[in-house]
Amino acid sequence: MTDAPLLSVRGLRTVFDTRAGRVCAVDGVDVEVRRGECLGVVGESGSGKSVTFSSVMGLVRSPGRIEAGEILFDGRDLRRLSGREMRAVRGRDIAMTMQDALTALNPALTVGEQLAEVLEAHDVSLPRSRGARARRIREISAEMLGLVGIPSAESRLRQYPHEFSGGMRQRIMIAIALACRPKLLIADEPTTALDVTIQAQVLELITEIRAKLGMSVVLITHDLGVVAEHCDRVMVMYAGQVVEEGPVADVIVRPKHPYTRGLLGSIPRLALRGQPIRPIEGQVPDLIDLPPQCRFYSRCAERGPDCLRPIAMHDAGPLRRARCVRVEEGGQA
Ligand SMILES: Nc1ncnc2c1ncn2[C@@H]1O[C@H](COP(=O)(O)OP(=O)(O)OP(=O)(O)O)[C@@H](O)[C@H]1O
User: Fold this and answer.
1) Mean pLDDT, rounded, for 236-240
2) What DSSP character marks residue 94?
3) CA atoms of 37 and 39, how far apart (whole Å)
4) Does residue 16 line the site of ligand 1, with CB under 6 A?
5) Which has the least CB within 10 A, 42, 146, 325, 327?
């Protein structure tokens, strides 16, 4: 049982019905997150990273919908849960921090009130009597702020989000996400809009807390340097599909997909944290009118006539998979 992945997504397909046509944002994505691991999800803007994990969280809203796929979390099929059951999973079992802390936090409530709201909704271990319950909520809230490195937690709980700096707000969002000790934290671009030093601190914090609480983390980012430093495994997405996955150390040294090679090639000094992915020449295909061939074809320096058909994921060595015809042919790609 403990060997089973915590999260297992199979054949996920999420579409948006727009006036211009059907946008296929996520097309046949498989994801596995094991207990205690950190999975990095990387790819250019629009590759489907956020939509994949919003789908897992049951947060895709109209005009979007999950068209196909299975989402198993801790042995439960999340797509079969009612809205109420899914709300219980969110926060208690899986928590997600959003790209922008300021919009994710409620400006009208103090930080203490927001933490209390989450605890009231999900923490079944709270005492029944009102006074003891309120005391326990204050205790846990102060503990959570302490955990994310916010000093003077008692007085900080009475402040509103706008009274904190950008980096502090990120920490508060993480504290709220972790308040019920979820088994999985999905951190979507926790670093955008923060300066490099604060980025590093927030990521360090997530790594530390992961070790302390033994939870699994999915880190969605544009930054392969961040993945190299903080993740165990990486999944590379391109135009709504996974194109490569494997242990980080291995993928970085021996990328199998030309797109991953392009991403790596654009970061001359991988050790340099905060280095964003420089776009590879050419454009991501239109998700409304996807080509029937390999989706990377038009940008691929290694393309050939054998790439002009849909390409499946193939085993590419121990724990490795890639979506490239060269891998399919058994070459090193
Ligand atoms: N509400 C929506 N309506 C229509 N299309 C949408 C909507 N939300 C997302 N999409 C489509 O889904 C695609 C994937 O979006 P997603 O946010 O998952 O990308 P991403 O890889 O997370 O990008 P970023 O790194 O910029 O956050 C987008 O390019 C867009 O075409």
Assistant:
1) 96
2) E
3) 6
4) yes
5) 146
